[in-house]
Amino acid sequence: MNDPAHHDEDEDQGDVFIDENDVVQEITVDDEDLPDVEGEDDDAEDFEEADDSMHIFTGHTGELYTVACSPMDARLVATGGGDDKGFIWKIFDGDWAFELGGHKDSVCSLDFSADGQLLASGSFDGLVKIWDASSGDLKGTLEGPGGGIEWVRWHPRGHLVLAGSEDCTVWMWNADRSAYLNMFSGHASSVTCGNFTPDGKTICTGSDDATLRIWNPRSGENTHVVRGHPYHTEGLTCLAITSDSTLALTGSKDSSVHIVNIATGKVVSSLTSHTDSIECIGLSLSSPWAATGGMDNKLIVWDLQHSSPRCTCDNEDGVTCLSWLGDSKYVAAGCVDGKIRIWDSLSGDCVRTFSGHSDAIQSLGVSADKNFLVSGSLDGTARVFEIPEFQ
Question: Is the dihedral of CA 21, 22, 28, 30 positive or negative?
Fold first, then answer.
C-alpha cells in the first residue's frame, strides 16, 4: 500500500463507487449489534467498580461509623452507624445477625471485652449499652453522661467499661452489675479519645481542649494534665498507649503527634511530618514503631526509638483509620476515597489496594485469626477482605 505509483493511481480515479452488480448479499444489521463507541469508558468504569470483598454486610440503613472484631471468635463482628443501630453478625453467614436496638442516636463506638464475652455500644444519645456477645441479649444500660458518647473501652482484664463524653466527662462502670464506679471531671471540652493503660492501672484521656489528662482509676484523682508548649495547640483526635504502659502517643488537629511519659506527664518527643489533621494512630506489635494517618493523604511509619519517620506512604486521599495486621510488618490504611491500602512498613511500598466501597472508610477491624480485615464505610456497608498473605 505504500507503493507511490499505486497511491497516484488511486488519486487519479477520484471517488470509487461499488457497482450494484458487485453486491453478493445484503445483511440487515441491528443497531444493538453495532460496536459501542463508549465501550472503552464502560470498561474503565467496570474496572473502577471492582469489588475485592468476599463478604458484604448490608443490614444498616445509614452510614457506618464503627467496626469491632471479637478477640475470641474469628468470624464475629459488630458494626454501628447513623441508623441508630448496632449489629452483631458473622463472616460467611449472611443470614445470621443480631440487632442491637434501643439507642436513640448514632452508634459511634463499639468494643468487645478482652475475654470476648461482652460488647459495649456507645451512642450520641449519651448511653452505653452492654450486650452478651454470643446471644445478642441486652445485659444492661449505663447512664450518667450528659452528652453523646465519643468512645467506649474495656479494662484489659475485667468487666470494667470506660466512656468519654461530649459533656467533658469520662465515666467508669462495672458492666456485670451495671454499677457506676467513678466519674472523671476536668476537661473543658468533648473527650475525644481515651483508654486504660495495658496494665490496667492508669487511665489516659484526650480532649478537644488540646490537653491529655492522666487519672488514677481507683481514686478518680487527676495525676497529670499535659498542655501548652511543647504540646498540642489544637484538639486531640486519637491516642495510643505502648504495651509496657509507659508512653502515650497522641495525635491532633494541629497535624502533630506527641509522645508523653505517663508516669511524669512530660512530653518526651514530638513527631512532626504531617501537614494536616491527624486522624488515627496505631502501634506495631512486633517493633518499636507507630503508624499515623492524616488528612494530608499520608500514612507515616515512625521509629519511636529515634522519633523519626521510617517511611512516608502517599495515599490518593485522606487516611481516616488504620490497623496493623496482627504482629506483621503490614499496616492497613482506610481512606476517604473508599479504598483500603496495605503498606509494607519495612519498604514503604503499597502492596495491595482493596476496592469495593463507594464512600469514605470510617473504621477497620482485624479478625482474631488475622485472616480477615473488616471495614465500615459511609456507603452504609461493611465489607470483609481476605488477608492471610499479610500475616
Answer: negative
With b for 16 or more beta-carbon neighbours within 10 A and e for fewer, the 127-146 pattern comes to bbbbbebbebeebbebebbe
Instruction: Collect all residues with Cβ–Cβ distance below 8 Å to 266 and sequence separation of at least 6.
Output: 226, 260
Rounded Cα distance, 158 and 314, in Å: 40
What is this structure's pTM?
0.88
Centre a 10 Å sphere on the Cβ of residue 53 and count the other Cβ atoms it contains: 20
Cα–Cα dist 17/15, whole Å: 7
In order of 55, 164, 366, the CA distances from 85 in angstroms are 20, 19, 21
Measured CA angle at 18 (ends 16, 21), to 5 deg: 145
How far is the C-alpha of 234 from the C-alpha of 183, rounded, in Å?
25
CA 2 to chain centroid: 61
Q: What is the largest CA-CA distance in the chain?
A: 105
Residue labelled with grid coordinates 512530660:
266
Q: Which of 18-32, 91-105, 127-141, 359-373 has the lowest mean pLDDT?
A: 18-32
Which residues in 198-208 are b (16+ Cβ under 10 Å) and which e? eeeebbbbbbb
- Here the cell at position 44 is 474503565
3-state class of 206 per DSSP? strand
The sign of the torsion formed by the CA atoms of 18, 21, 22, 24 equals: positive
Q: Are 242 and 215 in contact (CB under 8 A)?
A: no
Looking up cell 484489659 gives 156
Helices (H) and strands (E) in the chain, counts: 2, 32
Distance CA 168, CA 313 (A): 35
> How many whole angstroms separate alpha carbon 9 and alpha carbon 7?
5
pLDDT above 50 (res 10): no
